Amino acid sequence: MRMYDLITKTRDGIELSREEIQFIISGYTAGSIPDYQMAAWCMAIYFKGLSPTATAALTMAMVESGETLTWPELDGVVVDKHSTGGVGDKTTLVLLPWVAATGCKIAKMSGRGLGHTGGTLDKLDAIDGFESALDRGRFIEQVQAIDLAVAGQTGALVPADQKLYALRDVTATVDSIPLIASSIMSKKIAAGAEGIVLDVKVGKGAFMQELPLAKQLAETMVDIGKHTQRQTSALITNMDQPLGHAVGNALEVKEAIQTLKGEGPEDLSNLCLALGAEMLLKARRVSSLEAGRKLLEDTMQTGQPLHKLKQMIAHQGGSPEVVDNPDLLPKAPVVRDVKAVQAAYVKEVNARSVGLIAMQLGAGRQTIDDTIDLTAGIEIFAKVGRQLQAGDIIARLHGQTEQDVDEAVMALKDAISWSPTPTAEPQLILGRISS
Asked: Comparing C-alpha atoms, which of 205, 184, 159, 223 is closest to residue 28?
């Protein structure tokens, strides 16, 4: 086989075989296929796409490029959840203790993030002493002991994806549905997931800003699951406005704790219920989504989800007292409320603009080497459809300096729009796709 011929076939819309795709991925990972040829192949995929069979073959070739994990020590089906990312998306912090409290064993590998705020591990860094670097033995031991562990992904998982993503990032081929879908699914499969639940965000604060594209991505990933014998489902969820109120690492941990106490924002609680029901169905703990929701609601009443979070924090070296007293989380030196000057209805809260404000305050990173300010961020109390009166708090800004917060206040004016007449609350879950 020659890479030149395989580029030509893809460019001309001729489907590659599993062996040909394996040749490309193994050759690129080993360094025998140069960047310029791989970039040409990615561009051919960008314009011509890949069939479902070829996309699944690409996914498995990337899985096989490195270490793969299995969990024979764990009873039952190993289920994982993935979100395509959004503003204020702290669902993992709520969802995993909640689902684990029903008796499911959750072995979750998470990462750090670029963008408006950090990833799950960055948020957990806000808990004093919390350790996410667990070796496999300790990881399994913890899951067997308390049903739940969250650890950093090993660099040995899917090295082809790491190398390929860096290339796509500089060759304008990031936003290709087959390449996005295979990137996401390869990491879930390599980490040992047998059931996969996907939260595909769409809207101003999401990677996918148009519903047809989000639906296409969800369908592609679910189809990969079907081709690779993984039970997979996807919810398409609204990210036009931030999820919940908190956008920022320590702030999101605090809101997750409030949600596990039954005191969290309605949209965050409802989304976690929906995703949790999907996870329980994939784990064969329930026979229907309705039964899954009922089990989660009943479990919340027992207080066990909060206890499960405490156990996880304690086992991973953190201070579980933060669950009883979230004020122990680090705080920004400058905190300022922004209040409504007159009564009006909230017409729009632009999630992307709010995310950029949080990043400017220090809550996110633009490059992997940037340092995150775990205390920085914004709490948005204006939600679309809500009526605010003069003097009501629109938002609370958390920053390092008065100047930083001054600039954030100015930017906030462009992030929220108002209406003198009632406006409808947006639909949170826009669709469901299942294998």
From this structure: 159
**Residue holding tokens 């969990």?**
71
- Cβ-based neighbours of 322, under 8 Å, separated by 6 or more: 127, 128, 253, 257, 313, 328, 329
Q: Consecutive 10-residue runs of the chain (435 residues): their mean pLDDT?
A: 96 97 97 97 97 97 92 84 93 96 89 76 94 88 91 85 91 93 94 94 94 97 96 97 97 97 96 98 96 97 96 96 96 97 97 96 83 95 97 97 97 95 96 93
Distance CA 177, CA 55 (A): 10
3-state secondary structure of 324: helix
**Torsion angles phi and psi, residue 393, rounded to 5:** -80, 125
| Token pair in block for residue 187 | 């990491």
The whole-angstrom separation of Cα 247 and Cα 125 is 15
Q: Which CATH number fits domain 79-325: 3.40.50.150, 3.40.1030.10, 2.40.30.20, 3.40.50.10780?
A: 3.40.1030.10
Q: Beta strands of 190-292 (E only): which ranges?
A: 195-202, 231-238, 246-247
The label of the residue with tokens 């990173």 reads 365
Which among 30, 28, 51 is positioned nearest to 40, based on CA atoms?
28
Q: Model pTM? A: 0.93
Residues of the chain with CATH 1.20.970.10: 3-49
Degrees, nearest 5: CA angle 257-153-293: 40
- Classify domain 330-419 by CATH architecture: Alpha-Beta Complex (3.90)
Rounded Cα gap, residues 364 and 335, in angstroms: 18
Tokens of 167: 């290339």
Class of domain 3-49 as given by CATH = mainly alpha
Residues recognised as catalytic: 82, 161, 168, 183, 187
DSSP letter at 425 equals P
Residues of the chain with CATH 3.90.1170.30: 330-419
At 92-134, the pLDDT tens digits run 999 999 999 999 988 888 877 766 777 899 999 999 999 998 8
